[in-house]
Design brief:
Elements: E1 3-7, H1 19-33, E2 37-43, E3 54-64, E4 67-78, E5 81-87, H2 89-92, E6 99-100, E7 103-104, H3 108-127, E8 131-135, H4 141-149, E9 160-165, E10 173-174, H5 178-181, E11 195-196, E12 199-201, H6 202-209, E13 212-215, H7 218-223, H8 234-239, E14 244-246, H9 274-286, E15 298-305, H10 318-324, E16 327-334, H11 336-348, E17 353-357, H12 361-370, E18 373-376, H13 386-392, E19 397-400, H14 403-408, E20 415-417, H15 422-436, H16 439-450, H17 456-472
Parallel strand pairs: 1-2, 1-8, 2-5, 8-9, 9-13, 13-14, 15-16, 15-18, 16-17, 18-19, 19-20
Antiparallel strand pairs: 3-4, 4-5, 6-7, 10-12, 11-12
Bound molecules: adenosine-5'-diphosphate and alpha-D-glucopyranose.
Adenosine-5'-diphosphate binds next to α1, β15, β16 and α12.
């Protein structure tokens, strides 16, 4: 049986800031249903002490730059997957995952280097995998350290490395001096290694060192090889294109299904949509609106408020949107300028726009269920999960045709626009509002989306085939 060990900074339900956690919370279990033995290594963040967790290794030392860091390893079995947690209190017993009060921790490079080395320790002493599958820049040092420091280690020498890019916009770029703290030698700190315009670029290290690189949708796999979406790494990704593939994320329908969702005041199915109206009412109430706006279409948003997500397109068309009569309900938090956009819209058009700042999982589910449409006008989107959730919830998405949004939404199930401009967005929203008026056609559109199947099984089978391919190579 093939043994895969995943390394990631997030996995639902243990630690989540975005879709990376959803993927790590579901893909390993789907792999294990496909006969692959899957495990996951995560940091043991503050307060992370789920029932059943056990300390299995008291002192796993990690050496970097002549410093010894002590870690202990905890384990929890869940849904056929072994989760290992690296405890290093100095680095992970903190307020946030990557930052506190809006500023990134100054030692993130070291935090995730210690984590990556501890993960390699787990691989050598405990898991002994065939494949190590690392995710995003936080785990990008895993293949790099494995090949440069442990190339002759009998437990690691034969191991193949897969590295997945969930978002090329976050590369883990640090000043050149950081490489000394991470023990990265001169021969690696070159333009064909981890150096990028004089800086240390951890994601680049992962791309260079891995045996195979994947990203989370076929379209994004093409886009990142272009200067427009390559964030400076498109040349390298073109060089590696024969070892690069896009595998679309799946969705965990145990968590995101209106027929069974425990966060909703009522459940519903494509055949019986009555519960959706109850969710709609509860959603309006949650945002402090009453039945007087019942007749207006509701557009929902659940998002990190980041430049990537394209909400700067919304701001210039605020007046027109308000005049169109739509109600826009948004949940999210993030970059100050993006938060300001929503704050300003909600202040100027209090009857039409409301925003809930922060992170709120039950409200995210209620927005998916209670809205009539779901908006994701992303500048770029590696995969995107919320648009897939909204299909299942009978909430046709309005998306920009980029990355995974383009791969998952069709003209029959949602609304797409290509040009990144406020006018293109406005025209598409207006078109959706027009279509919404034809109730029968709208219900058919909802039902088509609800019938789509993006469950993890298909993606897990594709990863399974990829692992086979990598092991043969
Ligand atoms: P990204 O990973 O780029 O943020 P995705 O669409 O892949 O985008 O995944 C986002 C995930 O995070 C979804 O599960 C979404 O419901 C969740 N999410 C984002 N913002 C919030 C929030 N403010 N409150 C609750 N859940 C959120
Ligand atoms: C990233 C991307 C998002 C993707 C998620 C999971 O955060 O921004 O598009 O769905 O990772 O792969």
């Amino acid at each position: 049986m093939t043994k895969v060990m995943m390394v990631s900074s997030e996995a639902a339900p243990f630690a989540k800031s975005g879709g990376l956690a959803d993927v790590l919370g579901a893909l390993p279990a789907a792999l294990s249903r496909h006969g692959i033995e899957a495990s996951v290594v995560l940091p043991k963040y503050r307060g992370l002490h789920p029932e059943g967790i056990e300390r299995i290794w008291d002192d796993l030392s990690v050496w970097i730059n002549n410093f010894e860091h002590h870690t202990s390893i905890w384990k929890l079995d869940k849904d056929g997957v072994a989760f290992y947690f690296v405890e290093a209190s100095w680095f992970f017993d903190r307020e946030g995952i990557y930052s506190s009060y809006g500023s990134d921790y100054g030692d993130n490079h070291l935090r995730f280097a210690v984590f990556s080395l501890a993960a390699l320790g787990i691989a050598r002493h405990i898991v002994k995998p065939d494949i190590i599958h690392s995710h995003d820049w936080q785990a990008a040092l895993v293949p790099l350290y494995a090949k440069s420091w442990f190339g002759a280690d009998p437990a690691l020498a034969h191991v193949k490395h897969v590295f997945t890019i969930h978002n090329l916009g976050y590369q883990g770029r640090f000043g050149a001096e950081a490489r000394h703290e991470l023990g990265i030698s001169d021969y690696l700190f070159t333009p064909v290694g981890v150096e990028y315009h004089g800086d240390l670029n951890l994601m680049k290290g992962g791309i260079v060192a891995a045996d195979f690189v994947t990203t989370v949708s076929p379209t994004y796999a093409h886009e990142i090889q272009t200067p427009e979406h390559g964030f400076g790494l498109d040349g390298l990704l073109r060089q590696r294109s024969s070892h690069l593939a896009g595998i679309l994320n799946g969705v965990d329908y145990a968590d995101w299904n209106p027929a069974t969702d425990r966060h909703l005041p009522a459940n519903y199915t494509p055949e019986d949509l009555a519960g959706k109206a109850i969710c709609r009412k509860a959603l309006l109430e949650a945002f402090g609106l009453d039945d007087s706006v019942w007749q207006r279409p509701i557009i929902g948003i659940v998002s990190r408020f980041a430049e990537q997500k394209g909400f700067d397109l919304l701001h210039p068309i605020g007046d027109e949107l308000a005049a169109s009569g739509a109600t826009l309900l948004a949940l999210g938090s993030g970059e100050p300028h993006q938060e300001w956009i929503f704050h300003d819209l909600a202040t100027r058009h209090h009857d039409n726009f409301r925003v809930w700042h922060g992170y709120n999982n039950p409200l995210a589910h209620l927005i998916e269920a209670g809205s009539d449409m779901f908006l994701m006008p992303s500048r770029y989107e590696p995969c995107g999960l919320n648009q897939i959730y909204s299909l299942k919830y009978g909430t046709p998405p309005i998306v920009r045709a980029t990355g995974g949004l383009d791969d998952t939404i069709e003209e029959t199930t949602g609304f797409k626009f290509g040009e990144y401009s406020p006018q293109a967005l406005l025209a598409t929203i207006r078109w959706a509002l027009e279509c919404w008026k034809d109730r029968d056609a709208w219900i058919r559109r909802m039902q088509l989306g609800m019938a789509k199947d993006f469950s993890w099984d298909r993606s897990a089978a594709t990863y399974g085939a990829l692992y086979e391919h990598v092991l043969r190579g």
